[in-house]
Amino acid sequence: MAEYSILITSSPFQGDTALRALAFAQGVIDNGDVINNVFFYSEGVHHTNNLMLNTGDELFILDSWKTLASEHNVKLLVCITAAVKRGIVSELEAKENGLSQANLTAPFEQAGLGEFFTALHECNRLVQF
Fold it and tell me: Name one GO biological process term (predicted).
């Protein structure tokens, strides 16, 4: 059984990358393999913005990631530095900076690059989108 880590570095608004990443993740699971985590980095952190609204005319990526996490016990890790730089903040950052609300909520978890690299030791495959 293969164990995967998926690295998302592209924006959800950039072509069909988000759809391909989700299809790949489902294929891994359908094959009987495991996804240990999905790590959102760089422009990929935009996938995790809880203030996105479903427009109904395209894939609603936020719910798709949440479904993957809940149905298959996949950790969704978000690079804290990349997220904060792009205005994606947790309850703690919102409170510390006087913001009215957070836009990074469960099941997404903040993590540093060090935590991601440590998690890679539990995997034998890394795929980037």
Answer: tRNA wobble position uridine thiolation
pTM above 0.85, yes or no: yes
Marked catalytic residue, from 38, 45, 79, 111: 79
Give the burial class of 85: count Cβ atoms within 10 A of its Cβ; 0-12 exposed, 13-18 middle, 19 or more buried: exposed
pLDDT digits (tens, 9 = 90+) for 62-106: 999 999 999 999 999 999 999 999 999 999 999 999 999 999 999
Contact between 109 and 75 (Cβ < 8 Å): yes
- Domain span holding position 120: 3-128
CATH code for the domain in which residue 52 is found: 3.40.1260.10
Tens digits of per-residue pLDDT, 2-22?
Answer: 999 999 999 998 889 999 999
In the chain, how many domains are there?
1
CA-wise closest residue to 3 among 45, 47, 35: 35
* DSSP code of residue 89: -
